[in-house]
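Input chain follows. Return structure tokens only.
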Amino acid sequence: MKSLSATCLFVLALAGCSPNNGGGGDGRVTAVVNGVEITRREVDFLCRRPALRDSDGVAERQRVLSLLVRKELLAQHALALKLENSPDFIVAMYEARRNVLAGMAERHIAAQSEKVLPESVEKIVAANPRFFSQRKLLVYDQVVIPSVDEPLLTSLNNDAESGASLEQLLNRINAKKIPFRRTMQALTTDQIDPGIFSVLSTSRLKKPRIVRIETKFSMILVLRATVPMPLDGDAAIQAAADMLNEQQRKMEVSKTLTKALDSAKITFFGEFASDKGGKKLPVTSFDLPPLPLLQP
């Protein structure tokens, strides 16, 4: 119970809310809901930016305050129903505390990462034309089939080579009652998965391409349009610097987590306990997302 009380105090301090008799003339309080203060500090925190004087800033702050008032009314209703005695409430409090502290730690660690050098940024821009000078917007159909049927894929590919449209190919798939998901994508070349980009970059407009992703699933891609959207000059330098700085931050967080794992004592229980041979379960690794082509 002592731990729960500490957690409650933590959340109360974070929110900046406290019981009040209704006074708020010192500028610290933005609203009082049935005697409970909602402070300016809380609005600032959720907006994640200083108070703005322009109309858009004011509108955003009003929206945030409106949401806080709504949440406070619902919270008070939950207290009236004594829902704080629910086991779910206790677990949610601990999880909220863990998430907030983890997020703060991650931001603190990331802030310690070294800034990239200007020469590294220039090398990135020169070495990655797909991300910068040759950047384009690609509009394409993407059909995902959650299976790999080699005979069907070969047949669909032959039909596509003979001039069949995407609709005709989908009619064949429907006739076999095979599920699929069709979406229209509009992404710049730096946002597209490298494998998909390699197919689209050699595709003719409106001609379906059949691809297989190992033994996991299949896709049909149809390029509809390409629009040049190059990044050059200061815009390219800024974009490359942002990419490299983000990579540096992720590497710093990963390095800290790896060090913490190496020195931590972790014991698993129940379904997560050691296997029958007495070996501990492997600890989840913290892999960085791949950044192909981004090498200084």
